[in-house]
């Protein structure tokens, strides 16, 4: 059922996508010229490669893997292939925090104000979900609490848009919400990467518990899994990884849903093996999407990354569902 | 030797008493059947015994030691639990599903023989590579039982392992549980099939509205009085190979409407 070649093949794909991302952009300069120039200290190639494209590529990989990994962990925890990072209020909180920062002008007060606000939003949202669901309640209460908090975040974002003082602030907020990794700097990488790495470590350590959950909560308990601890671990891991990711990228949909779905056959259905595979797949998907954004650009504003992932992701997901239905029939 | 026992066990959930004053023990080599009407507290008893529900009062001991003092993994190595419904959420293979029983033994566990033995005991070796979601109900029930056996436990608690199974599978599962008890395991099983309970179990515990109504040999527990009191039924009786088998026959005439505890 599983394919041993999948992880190395994915890794190879990821490396070539990352390399393409580094050498694709709006300045027409050959890879050799760019690399040689950057290494020999020429200011323009160095600025393009090190200051502009490298942070963008690193963030593509990190944000994509955070979304893919969190999606897989959420699906494993909730035992539902439709779960995704947004379900428990993780992305909604980040979006609300960032939108409030843009609305109040806090975002302009210092360089990392926007991602920090997003991050705080996630922390608060997850805290509220916890307070609502409690530590010992079941999966359904957790999902309901997440849905309630997500909806509230959505409503508050609409309220902020409603009260937006001027069209400039409005468009700034809307553009941020569309999701993008253009014009990010090494500061964004420094802010997001440690939290994504910490969240990923927490989530990758959940494989054993998620595997036991395959047979239901009672059986998992009887196999020695502390369910309350597992739940807390997945929630905190997701909050760290996705909170940090959304804070620097804005809202990017479908990666967290599609990556685990694509990888599940390769993982043989095993939720533990699915975790690293989904992280790799998420990174590959987002890097490819960001590459496409740059390649598709002709004139006018760049297509937003979040718009592309949703535009391609939704029909793709529908096709997957249809295929699964045909296979089941 | 007593493998698992409880004394004075009381379970309350949101001010409702689900179980009260339960004293019961399973010794090694015994196959104990838990019988009783729907809502009598059978599953609740098992959930308490595996530590999923905390007792309001009373003691549970596993291998002579208080259950609450066990680290989860050590408890899981000694005590296997077969849950109702045979849930499987993801398309693992039969072998991988059975191998989940080795989880309590830690990541370093290399005991593939335990998995092979469990597969063979449940007659699943030829299905080892099949997707567990594609199995028939009977095959899936056997897979889940093999998963519990793969733990290599001292105690096995099986909650309605026969539900929705055909007669051949019911007999197969009961024979397998009996064989495990014969090999020294302490086995507790929740059953609704009274003839099978009488035929296979060494002792029975009859629960009624959260209390223990009777315990003893099958013929003691499944007496006319007890069946009337616990289920509101009368049974026809057969003598077969020296055991008396009660076949639920009709509702007790003019029985007062039994209060549902569900």
From TrEMBL, chain A:
Q: What is its main location?
A: membrane
Transmembrane domains' residue ranges: 54-74, 86-106, 112-134, 141-161, 191-213, 234-262, 305-322
Q: Which Pfam families match?
A: FecCD
Q: Name one GO molecular function term.
A: transmembrane transporter activity
Compartment(s) of residence:
Cell membrane
UniProt membrane topology term: Multi-pass membrane protein
One GO cellular component this record assigns the protein to is: plasma membrane
An example GO biological process term is: siderophore-iron import into cell
Q: Which UniProt keywords apply?
A: Cell membrane, Membrane, Transmembrane, Transmembrane helix, Transport
PANTHER family listed in its UniProt record: ABC TRANSPORTER PERMEASE PROTEIN MJ0876-RELATED, FERRIC ENTEROBACTIN TRANSPORT SYSTEM PERMEASE PROTEIN
Family, as annotated: Belongs to the binding-protein-dependent transport system permease family. FecCD subfamily.
User: What is the name listed in the Swiss-Prot or TrEMBL entry for this protein?
Assistant: Iron ABC transporter permease
């Amino acid at each position: 059922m599983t394919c041993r070649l999948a992880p190395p093949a994915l890794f190879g794909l990821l490396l070539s996508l990352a390399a393409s991302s580094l050498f694709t952009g709006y300045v027409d300069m050959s890879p050799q010229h760019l690399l040689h120039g950057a290494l020999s200290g020429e200011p323009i190639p160095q600025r393009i490669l090190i200051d502009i494209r490298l942070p963008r590529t690193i963030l593509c990989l990190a944000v994509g893997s955070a979304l893919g990994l969190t999606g897989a962990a959420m699906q494993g925890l909730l035992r539902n292939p439709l779960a995704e990072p947004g379900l428990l209020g993780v992305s909604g909180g980040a979006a609300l925090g960032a939108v409030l920062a843009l609305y109040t002008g806090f975002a302009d007060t210092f360089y990392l104000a926007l991602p920090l606000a997003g991050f705080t939003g996630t922390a608060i949202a997850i805290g509220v979900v916890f307070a609502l669901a409690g530590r010992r309640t079941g999966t359904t209460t957790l999902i309901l609490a997440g849905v309630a908090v997500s909806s509230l975040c959505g409503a508050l974002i609409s309220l902020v848009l409603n009260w937006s003082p001027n069209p400039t602030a409005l468009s700034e907020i809307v553009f941020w919400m569309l999701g993008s990794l253009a014009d990010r700097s090494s500061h964004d990488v420094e802010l997001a990467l440690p939290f994504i790495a910490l969240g990923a470590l927490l989530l990758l350590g959940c494989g054993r518990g998620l595997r036991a959950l395959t047979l239901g909560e009672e059986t998992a308990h009887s196999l020695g899994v502390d369910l309350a601890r597992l739940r807390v671990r997945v929630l905190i891991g997701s909050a760290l990884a996705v909170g940090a990711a959304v804070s620097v990228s804005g809202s990017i949909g479908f990666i967290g849903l599609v990556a685990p779905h694509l990888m599940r056959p390769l993982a043989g259905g095993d939720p533990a093996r699915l975790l690293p595979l989904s992280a790799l797949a998420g990174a590959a998907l987002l890097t490819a999407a960001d590459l496409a954004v740059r390649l598709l650009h002709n004139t006018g504003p760049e297509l937003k990354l979040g718009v592309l992932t949703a535009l391609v992701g939704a029909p793709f997901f529908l096709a997957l569902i249809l295929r699964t239905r045909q296979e089941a029939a | 030797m007593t493998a698992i026992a409880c004394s004075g066990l009381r379970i309350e959930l949101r001010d409702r008493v689900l179980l009260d004053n339960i004293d019961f023990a399973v010794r090694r080599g015994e196959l104990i059947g838990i019988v009783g009407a729907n809502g009598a507290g059978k599953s609740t008893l098992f959930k308490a015994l595996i530590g999923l529900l905390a007792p309001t009062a009373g003691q549970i001991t596993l291998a002579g030691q208080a259950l609450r003092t066990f680290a989860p993994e050590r408890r899981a190595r000694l005590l296997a639990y077969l849950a109702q419904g045979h849930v499987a959420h993801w398309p693992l293979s039969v072998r991988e599903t059975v191998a989940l029983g080795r989880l309590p033994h830690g990541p370093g566990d290399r005991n593939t023989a335990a998995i092979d033995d469990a597969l063979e005991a449940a007659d699943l070796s030829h299905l080892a590579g099949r997707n567990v979601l594609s199995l028939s109900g009977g095959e899936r029930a056997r897979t889940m039982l093999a998963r519990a056996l793969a733990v290599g436990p001292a105690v096995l608690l099986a909650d309605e392992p026969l539900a929705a199974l055909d007669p051949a599978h019911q007999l197969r599962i009961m024979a397998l549980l009996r064989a495990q008890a014969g090999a020294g395991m302490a086995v507790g099983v929740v059953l609704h099939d009274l003839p099978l309970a009488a035929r296979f179990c060494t002792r029975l515990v009859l629960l009624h509205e959260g209390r223990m109504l009777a315990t003893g040999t099958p013929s003691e527990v499944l007496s006319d009085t007890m069946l009337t009191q616990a289920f509101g039924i009368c049974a026809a009786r057969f003598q077969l190979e020296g055991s008396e088998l009660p076949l639920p026959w009709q509702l007790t005439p003019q029985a007062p409407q039994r209060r549902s505890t569900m």
